[in-house]
Design goal:
It is a single chain. This protein is of the alpha+beta class and about 160 residues long. The chain has 5 helices and 5 strands. The chain has a 5-stranded antiparallel β-sheet. Strand 3 and strand 4 form a beta hairpin. Helix 1 packs antiparallel against helix 2. The two termini are about 35 Å apart.
């Protein structure tokens, strides 16, 4: 738990980082002295000086949009500089170090897409909500990725 809190404190935006630091302090406070010493040793550590790609959007706002099934419109720039505006169903905010990703159902692509949060220029709630639909849920995305990983491992 301490490692998870440290990763969030180091690699997320301001609001989430403060919450993670507060959670780590609470975890430490309820531990016996021997447990506190283990937390203080920093054996599980998340260094701050490594290359970071800080999110351009609020992680908590994205989390709430996914929880409440709010459709978003995002301005996005790919690594090759192509810009587009996408309407998405946010499903998960994922840390895939050193970047944060939004896993979403993209209406334009009619498929799942992962958007780097450091490449989202703007994010607007459309006012629309969405329902879970078979084939467009986070569980479907995870299942698809699991099958792709198994296929890749089997072909090596």
């Amino acid at each position: 738990m301490a490692l998870g809190a440290r990763v969030l404190a180091t690699w997320s935006d301001g609001a989430v980082a403060k919450q993670a630091a507060a959670a780590l302090a609470k975890i430490r406070a309820v531990l016996p002295a021997s447990g506190q010493a283990g937390v203080d040793q920093d054996i599980f550590w998340a260094p701050q000086w490594v290359t970071r790609f800080a999110p351009n959007v609020d992680l908590l706002e994205l989390k709430r949009a996914a929880q409440h099934r709010r459709v978003l419109r995002i301005d996005y720039e790919t690594l090759n500089g192509t810009r587009s505006t996408r309407t998405v169903r946010p499903l998960s905010v994922t840390f895939f170090g050193p970047v944060w990703l939004l896993v979403a159902w993209c209406e334009a692509a009619d498929d799942f897409r992962c958007f780097r949060l450091d490449r989202i220029g703007a994010m607007i709630a459309t006012g629309a909500t969405f329902r879970d639909e078979a084939g467009k849920r986070l569980a479907d995305f995870k299942h698809m990725k699991g099958e792709q990983a198994q296929h890749a491992a089997a072909s090596q």
